[in-house]
Design goal:
- With about 230 residues, this protein is α/β, with parallel strands linked by helices.
- It has a single domain, classed as 3-Layer(aba) Sandwich (Rossmann fold).
- Helix content is about 35%, strand content about 10%.
- It has 7 helices and 5 strands.
- The chain has a 5-stranded parallel sheet, sandwiched between helices.
- Strand 2 (about 25-35), helix 2 (about 40-55) and strand 3 (about 55-60) form a beta-alpha-beta unit.
- The N and C termini lie far apart (about 45 Å).
Length: about 230
C-alpha cells in the first residue's frame, strides 16, 4: 500500500478527505494541529475520526499561532456571525477568521512528515466553491505548494519520487462533499466545524463555518448530526 499523509482538522471536509484517501487504497497517516485556536473541540474530533478510520498513525502537533495573532481564531477578536459572503470592514473580502499562512504552515509540517515516512502523497481538504474566501484554499496555492515540495526536499531533488498534493474536494460544493462522504459512510456525527462553540462543545450555528455546513446539509437533503445551540 502506498502511504499518504492526510491533514485532519476534525471538520467534515477533512473527514471526507480521509475517507476518500482510504477508499483509494492509501495507508493513511493523519496529522492534526493544536495551534492555539479558540477551542480544543476540533482536536478531540480529529482524534475520534482517526480512531474510527483506523489510521496507521495519528500525530497531533502542538504549535502556537497565537504568538502572531491576526485572526479571530488565534486572537481576542470576535468571530463574525450571520453575514456569510459580505465584505468585511475595511474593504477586504477575506474574513477575520482567516489565520495568516495557516495552510502553508500545515502543509510544510505534512511535507516533513511525508518525507520521513517515504510517502509522496499528501491529502488536504481545502475547497474553493463553498468556502469563506481564504487565499490558501485555491487551486493556485495547491499547485504552487506541490511545486515547492518537489524543489525543497531531499527526496524530490534526488528523484526518489514526485510529491503530489491531493485536494479532492477543491471543486465540490458543500452539498457535494457531504453526499460523497455519506457514500463513503463518513461518521459526520464525530465531526466539528464551528469556530465559536460553547464550553460544552455545542456549535453556535451563526459563524461562517456553521452557516456553510448547515446550508450544505440542507441542500444535500439530510439532517446535520451536529449539536447546535438553540437548534
Amino acid at each position: 500500500m502506498k502511504k499518504a499523509v492526510v491533514l485532519l482538522s476534525g471538520g467534515l471536509d477533512s473527514a471526507t478527505t480521509l475517507a476518500m484517501a482510504a477508499a483509494e487504497g492509501f495507508e493513511c497517516y493523519a496529522l492534526s494541529f493544536d495551534y492555539g485556536q479558540r477551542h480544543g473541540r476540533e482536536v478531540a474530533a480529529a482524534a475520534a475520526l482517526a480512531g474510527h478510520f483506523g489510521v496507521k498513525r495519528h500525530v497531533t502537533q502542538k504549535i502556537d499561532l497565537r504568538a502572531f495573532g491576526g485572526s479571530a481564531l488565534t486572537a481576542d477578536i470576535a468571530v463574525p456571525k450571520d453575514h456569510l459572503g459580505q465584505v468585511e470592514a475595511g474593504g477586504s473580502s477575506i474574513p477575520i477568521t482567516y489565520v495568516p499562512a495557516r495552510n502553508t504552515v500545515f502543509l510544510a509540517f505534512a511535507l516533513g512528515f511525508a518525507e520521513s515516512l517515504g510517502a509522496f502523497d499528501i491529502f488536504v481538504g481545502v475547497n474553493a466553491v463553498d468556502y469563506s474566501g481564504y487565499p490558501d484554499c485555491r487551486p493556485e496555492f495547491i499547485k504552487a505548494f506541490e511545486t515547492l515540495a518537489n524543489l525543497a526536499t531531499k527526496a524530490g531533488v534526488e528523484g526518489q519520487g514526485r510529491y503530489h498534493v491531493h485536494a479532492p474536494l477543491i471543486q465540490l460544493s458543500k452539498a457535494g462533499i457531504i453526499r460523497r462522504g455519506l457514500a463513503l459512510k463518513v461518521p459526520y456525527e464525530l465531526t466539528h466545524s464551528c469556530y465559536d462553540p460553547t464550553p460544552e462543545g455545542k456549535s453556535c450555528g451563526h459563524c461562517d463555518s456553521c452557516l456553510l455546513r448547515l446550508a450544505g446539509f440542507k441542500e444535500a437533503g439530510v439532517r446535520d448530526p451536529a449539536v447546535y445551540v438553540n437548534m
